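haha ok so turns out i had the wrong file open the whole time. this is the CORRECT one, sorry everyone. sequence first:
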Amino acid sequence: MIKRVPTDQLEPGMFIHDLNCGWLAHPFVLNQFKIVNQAEIDKIAGYGIKEVYIDTALGSDVPGAQTQAEIHEELDRKMVDVVKETEKPISHTSVDEELVYAKQVFSEANQVIHDIMSDVRFGKQIELEKIEPVVENMTLSVLRNSGALTSLARVKQKDNYTFLHSVSVGVLLINFCQHLGLGREIIQQAGVGGLLHDIGKMKTPIGVLNKPAKLSDEELLIMKQHVMHGIAILQNTAGVTPLSLSIAAQHHERVDGSGYPASLKGNEISQFGQMAAIVDVYDAITSNRIYHQAMEPTAALRKLLEWSKFHFNEELVQHFIRCIGIYPVGTLVSLESGLLGVVIEEGTQNLLHPIVRVVYDSRKDSPLTPYEIDLSQASAKDRIVGHESPAKWKIDTQQFL
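then structure:
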């Protein structure tokens, strides 16, 4: 049985099923292992990990600890409560229409960030005037239909991860700010901060940045220095605002003080630093990376809600869930009828009832001629019962958007 237990209740002989720290780079070779001694427990705690999952079939038990199934059920109920009264702003265009423009915007943003990061690696100054028009175009796309650009931001190639991750964080921060009703100037500054939040990685040795294996303790310390490098670069870049700088400086801080580089706690971290931390982790855990299989968005949001117990601002996490929706555009969902569909538009009256493009019949294990169901309509007579892995069903969700 898989159970979640506090780190301070761990003992030698227990089997770690999941270190429960997808938001954290750590030096453990495996995520699953049997605890041999107290030193291993101290190392886990030393990395700011407050709770882990153990497998009682492979090691000692902790009587009374909640099971993974119970926790998932509890978190799923909480997510539903968070979004059930949320109304999304009416989109000015459909996802289908906006995707044409969003693809151009995303491609342009990726090229600009690629060029800027390459320039920084070779010691050149950042030219902010190249970034600001990109952020403006991203903002306009999000305002027309937030689902189009955010769905594109989930698709990444491992060899281009650093660049694409920067663009995705920029997109998500723009969307987050727009959801919170912040002004265009603030959104622009947040978008710039998101695009440049990892600029310090260009001062990280390539052998560490692109190492195709777990980093050692020493290499992790080198990697963490990217934040300080980023601060130094942006402080010397004309036109960078304090808001944009705070995003680069604080996206690895955690509200319990376990983050870096300054171990800030609670409101010592700016609102935008706290927002960036949430967005940065969400994008990282929904992306395929070395030694990390991407989570589906719904599972990732559940994890953020779980981790907000210690590491993130829970109120902001709930706002982010409302912003993204439990089933973001591009999510593969299973319906009560046994049909599988791709979410193509978020529900405007209720985020639990989006428009779905049905593409597969799981009962017959057979693809279907795609057709749409608006789950907000009484005539739909179907409902979402969960999310699915596209890889499991060999479905490329992007081709149905």
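The mean pLDDT is 92.
again sry for the mixup
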